[in-house]
Amino acid sequence: MTASIIGHALHVPSEGDCSPEQAHTLLGRKGLLGKDPATRLALCAVHRALGLPLGKPTLPLPGAVTTGVVVSSNLGNIDTVRSAAALVRAGERRSISPMDIPNASSNVIAGAIAIRFGFTGPNLTLCSGRTSGIDALRHGSRLIAADRADRVVVVGVEPDCDLVETTAVAACVVLSREPGALALDLGTTPAALTLEDDPLGEIYGALGVVQAVRAAEWLSAGSGPDALLTCGDNEDGYASIRVVAR
User: Fold this and answer.
1) Amino acid 216: pLDDT
2) pLDDT tens column, 167-200
3) Is pLDDT above 60 for 57?
4) Which of 39, 46, 203, 240 is the residue whose CA sits 20 to 30 A from 32?
5) pLDDT tens, 24-38?
6) CA–CA separation, 216 vs 163, rounded Å?
7) From CA 194, how far away is CA 189, in angstroms rounded?
8) What are the record keywords, sorted (predicted)?
9) What is the pLDDT of residue 80?
C-alpha cells in the first residue's frame, strides 16, 4: 500500500451534474473561457473531490506546492485536434482561433487543473487506451512512493464524443501519503468486490478512475474490505489495482 485515498468525486452530466456549458455554476465564470468540454468536466470533478465551495478557489490551497496531477484521457481534446486538422487540410490555417491553440496540447487538461488550483508538483497525462485509468492510479501512487509528491490528484475524463460514442464523465481520486481509511494496493489478488464494466457504458480512458471512485464509495459504506479494479481489452492489454479498507 503506497497511497491513501483522501477524497473522491464523480461528475456525470447525464445524471444531473452540470454540463460543460454550465460548469460556471460550480466553478464560477472566471478562467473558463476557451476551455474545451473535457477540461471543464475535469475541473468540476477536482473541485468537488477537494470539497471546495462554489466559485473560483482562493489560492494558495493548502498543500498545493507538493501536489501533483495525473490525468487519464484518450479523447479529451479530440474535437479541437479534428477541427484544426480539417482547417489545415482545407488550406485555412489562418482560421484556427488563437483560443484553440492551447487545447491542441495532449497535456492541456492536466495543465489547466494545475493552473486553476495552484498545484506545482509533477504533471502528466496518460493516453494508454483502455488501461489508462488504472495506469494513472498506479503512476499517482508511485509519485508518492518516490517522494515526488505528498498528494496527487488523479483524474479520468472523457467528453461526449461521436467518434466512439462515449459518455461524458469525469472522476477524481485524491491520493496522499498521509494515513487514511482507504488505500491503493498495487497487488492484483482476488477481492471481495470486483469492478470491470460500468453502468455508464463506454467511458474509455476514464473507466479505471471511475471504478476507484465507486469502490471508495462502496467500501466507505462497509460493503467489503477490498475491491479489485480491472479494465482493458485484447488490443490494449489489461491492468488491475486494488482499493482496500484499512
Assistant:
1) 97
2) 999 999 999 999 999 999 988 888 999 999 999 9
3) yes
4) 203
5) 999 999 999 889 999
6) 31
7) 11
8) Transferase
9) 78
The cell numbers describing 136, all together, are 494513472
What the block records as the C-alpha cell of 173 is 481520486
Matching CATH number, 3-245, of 3.40.47.10, 3.30.70.270, 3.40.50.150, 3.40.50.2300: 3.40.47.10
Distance between CA atoms of residues 196 and 229, nearest Å: 6
Q: In the predicted model, is pLDDT for residue 238 greater than 60?
A: yes
Instruction: Read off the C-alpha cell for 144.
Output: 508518492
Judge whether residue 218 has pLDDT over 70.
yes
Please provide residue 27's backbone torsions phi and psi, each rounded to the nearest 5 degrees.
-95, -15
Provide the H-helix boundaries in the chain: 24-27, 37-49, 78-89, 108-117, 132-145, 207-220
Which pLDDT band, with edges at 50, 70 and 90, does 95 fall under? Answer: low
Gap between the Cα atoms of 92 and 84, Å rounded: 9
Grid-cell match 484556427, residue found: 96
**What type of residue sits at position 185?**
D
State the number of CA atoms in the 13 A half-sphere of 140 facing the CB. 37
Residue 112 is placed in which grid cell? 489547466
- The span from the CA of 179 to the CA of 218, in Å, is 19
CB atoms within 10 A of CB 27: 23
CA distance 56 to 98: 24
